[in-house]
Amino acid sequence: MLDVVRGLAIIGTLGTNIWVFGGMGFSDEPSKLDDWINAISNFLTNGKFLGLLTILFGVGMQLKYQSYMRRELPWQRMYLWAMLLLLLDGYIHFVLVFEFDVLMSYAVSGMIVALVITRSERFMAIVMAVAGIIHLVSQIQYSLPFIGTERFSEEDMPLDERYFDEEFMAMGATWLEQVQYRFLNFWDLRGEAIMILPMNVFLFLLGVFLVRKGVFQSKKLQNRLLLFGLGVGIPLNLAPNFIESLSGYDCYVFAPVLSLGYIGIIFMLDRYEIFPRLQKYMGNIGKMALSCYVMQNVVASIIFYEWGFNLAAHTNSVITLAMWGIITVFMAVFSTLWLKFFGQGPFESTWRKLSLAPFKGRL
């Protein structure tokens, strides 16, 4: 079940990132069809699957913590080492592949929550509340100057967006020039990854609490996630289309609410055995989540950038959406074939070996 939800999160994350790759080639005057497709895609994916993936990271952390406690393994030393490896993996992915990598942010957040998860639930709830407040205040502080004004002027744009030269990255740079650009502009391009740290901590701990409250066993809790996530999340995420002053909160405040509804939907599909074959393929992607996350960005780079097939120069919303579908099918087929011969994905296997290597004597 967890693999199915994780697979959906990876597919949905691609649904957001594909516009970073393909959207660079849009004309200055998009058609009404482009506008509609972008609006629907933005509503369904933007921030929602990042929130889903973040919650699932917390779910996985709690399951791993329980496993370590049962086996009397040194939790903090082992998990902090694993997060250092993830930080390195994220940095390599950032420099070589994708400037909007989320792994580095997850690694730092994981280090924080790894220290908190050993404390009482009261203490965890306090940390969760503080992280949520810090995140909400930062989002309000960021959004207030734009209320009633043109939202994204060049001077007020976040650093990670201001310094991300789309034309250079997509249309005029070789792969080595892109790598150099990311390396030299590291802190400017990592603005978003730093900004979402409090949100990550909040959602990690939410995932921890969901496991502790029995989300995999409790149909009542699953139904509550479905009703709350959709009943509250849909109106919240529609609101910025009608109230411009709320547009600053769509991705990082309202979106995670709808993420809970997505979790509820997957539980419902599993419970009533709806689309079992589709769930199987999503589960295979979920089992290779790290490998598929990196792979989808590598494939999208090759397809859209000028040093590859240069599709960004000729694309529109329909083509971009089609590429999302093609890459998704590719991941499903690749992961299914790979798992027939190997127990884990290539990145998962390597990461597991490296993370356990210093502690072999304790296993």
Give an account of the 3D structure:
The structure is a single chain. The protein is globular, with a radius of gyration of 20 Å. The protein has one domain (2-357). The protein contains 18 helices and no strands. It has 363 residues and is mostly helical. The longest helix has 25 residues, at 317-341. It is 74% helix and 0% strand. The chain has helices at residues 2-22, 32-45, 48-70, 75-96, 103-116, 121-143, 159-162, 166-172, 175-184, 186-189, 191-195, 197-212, 219-238, 250-271, 276-287, 289-304, 317-341, 346-356.
Helix and strand arrangement:
Elements: H1 2-22, H2 32-45, H3 48-70, H4 75-96, H5 103-116, H6 121-143, H7 159-162, H8 166-172, H9 175-184, H10 186-189, H11 191-195, H12 197-212, H13 219-238, H14 250-271, H15 276-287, H16 289-304, H17 317-341, H18 346-356
Helix pairs in contact: 1-3, 1-15, 1-16, 1-17, 3-12, 3-14, 4-5, 4-18, 5-12, 6-12, 13-14, 15-17, 16-17
